[in-house]
Amino acid sequence: MNSCTSVETLCRVDEECMEEMPRSVEKSVSVDLSSEGLSGEMVIRFSIDMNGKFKVYDQREEERFHQALNYGIRHNAQINELADMCCLSPSTFKRRFRERMGLSPHLWFVQHRMKLAHDILLKADISTTELARLCCYNNTSYFITVFKGYYGISPGRLKKSLQQEQARD
Questions:
Q1: Strands across the sheet with 41-48, in order?
Q2: CA 136 – CA 143 distance, rounded (Å)
Q3: Cβ of 30: how many Cβ atoms within 10 Å?
Q4: Record: fold of 107-161
Q5: Which of 55, 62, 93, 106 has its CA 20 to 30 Å from the CA of residue 81?
């Protein structure tokens, strides 16, 4: 490992390396943990943002974050539950979520659930109630309101227009 990729106390990159890194660049470093009395290797991703702040994310954190996203899309999980999955406090989870995804967790999940609902409507003949349930909405009326706000049309009307198009073809 050269001096630029050395890591002190597992996660701190030496000062020379930080000075050499241009702003807004991401870099991954593979660290041999045997010198710390541990076995294996850890991959650390780090970057310096536009404000000059240095950020470190290890691979395990990234994996936990993606597992939480997948779980959150499939289940109606609360922020506390997702934060626990990532071994973070709820406020840190929200902050890191916004840094990574550019949206709050709530808006990101709504956006992805609405895209999922739209895709399901395009491919399957399904009731609005069942569609709402599949997209983690317990209240069908609220689901219809959110869907209409997002797409400008209710799921039922979209389904009907898709069926009419298919009948013409």
A1: 26-32, 41-48, 54-58
A2: 9
A3: 12
A4: Arc Repressor Mutant, subunit A (1.10.10)
A5: 55
8 A C-beta contact, residue 46 and residue 13: yes
95-109 confidence digits (pLDDT tens): 989 988 899 999 999
pLDDT bracket for residue 32 (50, 70, 90): low
Residue 110's contacts (CB-CB under 8 Å, 6 or more residues apart) are 146, 150
Query: What is the residue extent of each domain of the chain?
Result: 3-57, 61-104, 107-161
Say how many C-beta atoms besides its own lie within 10 A of residue 31's C-beta: 19
pTM (2 d.p.): 0.64
DSSP tally for the chain: helices H, then strands E: 8, 5
